[in-house]
TrEMBL record:
Pfam families assigned to the protein according to its UniProt record, in alphabetical order: NAGPA
Residues forming coiled coils: none
Keywords assigned: Glycosidase, Hydrolase, Signal
Annotated protein name in UniProt: Phosphodiester glycosidase family protein
Length: 261
């Protein structure tokens, strides 16, 4: 995604006013137990404005699983190659990662399997930093982040969607696209998710901050990853079963996933 388009998109967001919507789950499948191992969950939501959104979710506990970022190379890798990369890296679930330029260069800092790519950037879009180290998984505002040794997985992305349990104000209410995100209760529970249907950033933030809508626990903070045609999801159910996949419609530069500790 070109930086110039992202800058225009952010300027347009500032002129938009958020539309409020109530989100109701339409599927009756029960949530897994909080102490369950990593699990896949498919969710269908309907808003009070009439929008229906299907989402694929990978729920996991950061005490048992670590964050991983895979660099698929500047030539970019199509969704058909994701399962091979995922298996080779020992990932149990993955989504597409952060933003990138048309030439494949990442937008913002990326640390993939301990290797640093690009540089830390202060573009308004990149309001959050998702990273992992030996202590666990962390999600922070860019202004609070300090780069240090021991970080082996990191992506800059944005915008922030939920903070302190509330939807962030001022998010776009105009661009309806498929979305990729990560969210946490900021204790130890996390969810990697991707939607099969389009919704605005404001709607996604509202859904994430609605109790029981996209997580079985209250979301304390959440971050948007690259969405639109880059949106993709992959989950390995194990036991010789075929992966559960939402195919990205374009090649991507990075994957964000989890592996067992």
């Amino acid at each position: 995604m070109l930086l110039s388009l992202l800058v225009f998109w952010l300027m347009f967001d500032a002129w938009s006013s958020p539309a409020q919507a109530d989100w109701r789950p339409q599927t009756g499948e029960p949530w897994p137990a909080p102490e369950a191992p990593i699990s896949h969950h498919e969710r269908t939501l309907e808003s009070s404005t009439g929008r229906t959104v299907r989402a694929h979710l990978a729920l996991f506990d950061s005490r048992r699983y670590r964050l991983a970022v895979l660099d698929l190379g500047a030539e970019l890798a199509p969704a058909s190659a994701w399962p091979e990369h995922m298996r080779a890296a020992g990932l149990l679930a993955a989504v597409n990662g952060g933003f990138f330029h048309a030439d494949g260069q990442p937008l913002g800092l990326v640390i993939a399997e301990g290797t640093r790519l690009n540089r830390f950037e202060t573009a308004k879009l990149l309001s959050g930093v998702l990273y992992g180290d030996a202590r666990g998984i962390h999600l922070e505002r860019r202004v609070r982040f300090q780069l240090r040794t021991g970080i082996d997985a990191l992506v800059q992305s944005g915008p922030y969607l939920v903070e302190h349990g509330r939807a962030v104000r001022g998010l776009s209410t105009n661009d309806v696209s498929r979305r990729t995100f990560i969210a946490t209760d900021w204790r130890r529970h996390w969810v990697l998710g991707a939607t099969r249907d389009g919704l605005t950033l404001a709607e996604l933030a509202e859904a994430l901050s609605t109790p029981g809508a996209l997580a079985p626990w209250a979301v304390e903070r959440a971050l948007n990853l690259d969405g639109g045609t880059s949106t993709g999801f992959l989950f390995d159910p194990g036991a010789g079963q075929a992966p559960i996949q939402v195919r990205a419609r374009r090649p991507v530069r990075t994957l964000v996933g989890v592996r067992a500790r």
